[in-house]
Amino acid sequence: YFNESPENHLLRFVHLPTKCTISIYTISGEFVTSIDHDDPFSGNEWWNLKNGQNELIAPGLYIYVVQTPGGDKKIGKFAVVR
User: 66 has which bridge partners?
Assistant: First the structure.
């Protein structure tokens, strides 16, 4: 889910488990960033589309991995278009 408006670049991950880590990679496998989610009431987590150096990521295809502390994984992909 994208919310593209001036100065507001956000992507929302939905239907997340209570506790998980979202790891984001480029399509070539380069690590971009990770997000820790720990919320018993909301399965949503917002990401500002910035990498570990606080720079906006480039347009392209990305892979995400959602992993719970118990080891369950969900892998998916998304595209950033500007």
Answer: 22, 74
Measured distance CA(62)–CA(24) in Å, rounded: 7
Q: What is the pLDDT of residue 82?
A: 74
Cα–Cα dist 48/35, whole Å:
11
**Which two structure tokens, joined as six digits, stand for 47?**
């990401």
Rounded to two decimals, the pTM is: 0.87
**24 vs 51: CA distance, rounded Å:** 9
Q: Measured between alpha carbons, how far is 30 from 13 in angstroms, rounded to an integer?
A: 20
- What are the pLDDT digits (tens) for 1-29? 555 556 677 889 999 999 999 999 999 99
Answer positive or negative: Cα dihedral of 58, 62, 68, 69.
negative
